[in-house]
Every structure is written in structure tokens, then in C-alpha cells.
């Protein structure tokens, strides 16, 4: 399923995580406006809207060899993909968000969300967690 270099495998796992996040958001009533909004200084994985609020969504995905390892990590909180949205990453995200807001002349409500996805590629299994409005 995932072949090639280690970086290529990471990119495929990340893309799978983004697909899962899109489906999850759509099932929750979000309208996807844009994906992989890229600027020189950063990228927003998903831009969505719901109830007149724009949601800038960062997706973090981590993979496991088996469901047992995934469940152990969740139960013992040994690896939380959302923790990869640290101060430096937030600064980059805010710069891209500000650019999007200016380019689209948007003056409504917005927020930054995280979707943490855990996958077991071999078993085609995944779990996700949505963190709403991480910075108030």
C-alpha cells in the first residue's frame, strides 16, 4: 500500500489523514472551501466553513503497525499527534491565515482547529479527534 522512500510514505500517510479529516468534517456539516492552501511561508491543510465561521484546520497524522499499538498509545497518551502543533507551527499557521483573510477580504469570525488522525495502514484502520478553536 505505502511504498517508496520514508518521506514518500510520510506524505502518503499525511494525505490519508487529510482525506479522513475532510470526510469527518463534511459529516459534521462543514463545507470544504479549500485544501492545501499553500504560501511560501506555510500551508493550511483544510479551510472549511460552518455556521458563518471559517475554520482553518491543521491535520496531524501518525501511523502505527497494528491496532493494538494504536490503542495502547491512545490509552497511555504516549503519542499525541496534536502536540506537533507547537509555538513555531502556530506562528506559521497564523501568517497563512492572515494572508488568506486579506486576500479574500474576509472580516467575519474564524478559528483555528486541529484534527489528530491515527492510522494503521496495513489494516486500513483509523481513528480521529477534533480539537475545536484551539486558540481563543
Describe this structure in words.
By secondary structure, the chain is α+β, with helices and mostly antiparallel strands. It has a single domain (6-131), classed as Trna Endonuclease, Chain: A, domain 1, CATH 3.40.1350.10. It has helices at residues 6-27, 67-76, 87-103; strands at 31-39, 42-50, 53-63, 109-120, 125-131. A 5-stranded mixed beta sheet has the order 1-2-3-4-5. Residues 1-6 have low confidence and may be disordered.
What's the layout of helices and strands?
Layout: H1 6-27, E1 31-39, E2 42-50, E3 53-63, H2 67-76, H3 87-103, E4 109-120, E5 125-131
Parallel strand pairs: 3-4
Antiparallel strand pairs: 1-2, 2-3, 4-5
Side-by-side strand order of the widest sheet: 1-2-3-4-5
Strand percentage lies at: 35-45%
Number of strands: 5
Instruction: Please tell me how large the radius of gyration is.
Output: 15 Å
Q: Determine the N-to-C terminus distance.
A: 40 Å
> What is the mean pLDDT?
87
CATH fold name:
Trna Endonuclease, Chain: A, domain 1
Labels describing this entry:
single chain, 136 residues, alpha+beta, Trna Endonuclease, Chain: A, domain 1, five-stranded mixed sheet, 3 helices, 5 strands, 36% helix, disordered N terminus
Amino acid at each position: 500500500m505505502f511504498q517508496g522512500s520514508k518521506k514518500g510514505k510520510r506524505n502518503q500517510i499525511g494525505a490519508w489523514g487529510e482525506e479522513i479529516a475532510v470526510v469527518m468534517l463534511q459529516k459534521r456539516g462543514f463545507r470544504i472551501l479549500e485544501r492545501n492552501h499553500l504560501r511560501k511561508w506555510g500551508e493550511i491543510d483544510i479551510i472549511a466553513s460552518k455556521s458563518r465561521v471559517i475554520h482553518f484546520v491543521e491535520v496531524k497524522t501518525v501511523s502505527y503497525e497494528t491496532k493494538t499499538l494504536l490503542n495502547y498509545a491512545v490509552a497511555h497518551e504516549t503519542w499525541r499527534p496534536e502536540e506537533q502543533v507547537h509555538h513555531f507551527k502556530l506562528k506559521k499557521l497564523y501568517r497563512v491565515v492572515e494572508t488568506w483573510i486579506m486576500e479574500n477580504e474576509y472580516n467575519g469570525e474564524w478559528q483555528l482547529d486541529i484534527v489528530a488522525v491515527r492510522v494503521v495502514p496495513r489494516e486500513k484502520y483509523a481513528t480521529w479527534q477534533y480539537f475545536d478553536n484551539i486558540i481563543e
